[in-house]
Amino acid sequence: MDTSAERLARTIGDRVKSERKNHDWTLDQLAELAGVSRRMLINVEQGTANPSVSILLKLSDALGLGLPALVEPPEAARSKITRAGEGAALWTGENGGRGVLVAGTDAPDVVELWDWTLAPGERLESEPHSSGTRELLHLLKGSITIEVDGEIHELKAGDAISFDGDAPHAYANSRKTAATFSLCVYEPGVGHTHKPESTNAK
């Protein structure tokens, strides 16, 4: 991992560990609630893992945080500015594409704002998010294909789409030029489904 990726991994690890301890949960309890392996959770907390967006979503939902709060230190300010180049790069494609979380709101009703680039030939498949999740995408440059629960939609620059994010979906760029788009994800009721019956020592 480069320096910025290492810093992000440490930030995520510190936040996950801190929130887990605030809940008085063991590693095993959080791993079970989030549906991730204990080894992965340990690696995340130690800042040595490069977890997928899917794993980060599972952890943030189990902790009742929402993804935006997981990838940045807690702040009490009413406003937060993310300067150009300072967003959390949470996905990197094999051909150089990037998914950068640039802004978001706190739980329970979480809104995420993403800046995406899909390089030629790249495809991102996403598992269904929590029930009620909606996604809004505005294609700024290039052409992409959006697949939602078996339906295929072709978008060109300037087009926009909204769809249910709680269904299987994918984004693909089969063209020879990069595609860029803004993506807004609305996830209601984050953290309301995870309450362990017992809280043991850490």
TrEMBL record:
Identification of the protein by name: XRE family transcriptional regulator
UniProt keyword annotations, A-Z: DNA-binding
GO cellular component term, pick one: cytosol
One Gene Ontology term of the molecular function aspect: DNA binding
Occurrences of domain HTH cro/C1-type (ranges): 16-70
Keyword NADP: no
Provenance organism: Glutamicibacter halophytocola
